[in-house]
């Protein structure tokens, strides 16, 4: 995350949202909110999350295998339950 830095436009965009919500100008918000590590870190975390979401590779093979196992277990349960109560199975 150390290489992810918000652009000046992104910082201004976030500050503009604060300004709009409080009926202030962007310049007023910049004077009132110190540009400390907390604010910059928040934007860096947001950018990192966006990066991960955009570049993630989803592998559904594991969930398909688990689904197959669950189906087998469910079928076994239904078969055993039917046998216990004396109902015919399909």
Helix/strand layout:
Elements: H1 8-21, H2 26-32, H3 37-55, H4 61-85
Helix pairs in contact: 1-2
Outline the structure in words.
With 90 residues, this protein is an all-alpha fold. Helices cover 72% and strands 0% of the residues. It contains four helices and no strands. The longest helix has 25 residues. The N and C termini lie far apart (56 Å).
Short description:
The chain is mainly α and 90 residues long. The protein is 72% helix and 0% strand.
Name the shape in a single word. elongated
Q: What low-confidence regions span 5 or more consecutive residues with pLDDT below 50?
A: none
Topology as H/E string?
Answer: HHHH
- What distance lies between the first and last C-alpha atoms, to the nearest angstrom? 56 Å
Summary tags:
90 residues, elongated
